[in-house]
């Protein structure tokens, strides 16, 4: 089963780094967040990826073209114009298709453009900026159980600020540091989709999160898989720093591999 990753946006909310590189190439622990996402799927034996490129997509192509150079010992023989790559610990069982899906194409349009690589098969889809400790096998089993066209992973993000519990005279009864947003579930990515979903997308200017998902919901063809574990989207520099600290602590919750 193929895994489609949306990696073409501008990442304007994290412009401190995205003006230099595409957002999925921003590093956590000296590895692009894209690598972390792919490692999660690979842990569950999903190794066939289709990555939708847009803004500075050539940098993602160059990363995979030089993948062994990043983690291997190499010998350059300049006299013979040759390169020898020695043994590497970074051998992945990945098959990676890098698809140019346009600079200004919306998320739905990007998905539509890679239909030729999916064919008539069920496929997975996620965003190139979010990590989670989601069990992909359980997600797939859930999708198969309900028989609908789409499954979306629903998550509860942590709030940025602490919450005070007060009584009528303003006495503080409790303090909850960065609680999950009460009774609010949001789109966390990590979709599983049937190929019929392509028919819900008209063209490049369609955001997948708008008309296509709204129509699927209206027709009762999308079901939420509730994930109560760790999930974090790298929207801002603050998010990047938080993920970096988790990784450096050796206790990154999304590191299931």
UniProtKB/TrEMBL annotation:
On whether Lipid metabolism is a keyword of this UniProt record, the answer is: no
Q: Name one Pfam family in it.
A: NTP_transferase
What species is this protein from?
Answer: Desulfitobacterium dehalogenans (strain ATCC 51507 / DSM 9161 / JW/IU-DC1)
Q: Name one GO biological process term.
A: O antigen biosynthetic process
* Protein name, UniProt field: Glucose-1-phosphate cytidylyltransferase
Q: Which SUPFAM superfamilies would you find in this protein's record?
A: Nucleotide-diphospho-sugar transferases
Keywords, ordered alphabetically: Nucleotidyltransferase, Transferase
Q: What sequence ranges are listed for the domain Nucleotidyl transferase? A: 2-203
Molecular functions per Gene Ontology: glucose-1-phosphate cytidylyltransferase activity
């Amino acid at each position: 089963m193929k895994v489609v990753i949306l990696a073409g946006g501008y990442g304007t909310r994290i412009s401190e780094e995205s003006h230099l590189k595409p957002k999925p190439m921003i590093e956590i622990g000296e590895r692009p967040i894209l690598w972390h996402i792919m490692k999660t799927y690979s842990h569950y034996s999903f190794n066939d990826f289709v990555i939708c490129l847009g803004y500075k997509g050539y940098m993602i192509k160059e990363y995979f073209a030089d993948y062994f150079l990043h983690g291997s010992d190499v010998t350059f023989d300049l006299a013979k114009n040759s390169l020898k790559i020695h043994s590497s610990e970074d051998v992945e069982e990945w098959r990676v298709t890098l698809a140019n899906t346009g600079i200004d194409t919306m998320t739905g349009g990007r998905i539509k453009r890679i239909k030729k690589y999916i064919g008539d098969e069920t496929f997975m889809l996620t965003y190139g900026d979010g990590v989670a400790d989601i069990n992909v096998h359980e997600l797939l089993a859930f999708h198969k159980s309900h028989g609908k066209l789409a499954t979306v992973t629903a998550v509860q993000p942590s709030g940025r600020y602490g919450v005070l519990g007060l009584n009528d005279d303003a006495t503080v009864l409790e303090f909850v540091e960065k609680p999950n947003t009460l009774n609010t579930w949001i789109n966390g990515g990590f979709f599983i989709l049937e190929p019929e979903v392509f028919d819900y997308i008209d063209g490049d200017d369609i955001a997948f999160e708008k008309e296509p998902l709204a129509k699927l919901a209206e027709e009762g063809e999308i079901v939420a898989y509730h994930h109560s574990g760790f999930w974090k989207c790298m929207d801002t520099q603050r998010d990047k720093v938080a993920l970096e600290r988790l990784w450096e602590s050796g206790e990154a919750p999304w590191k299931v591999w």
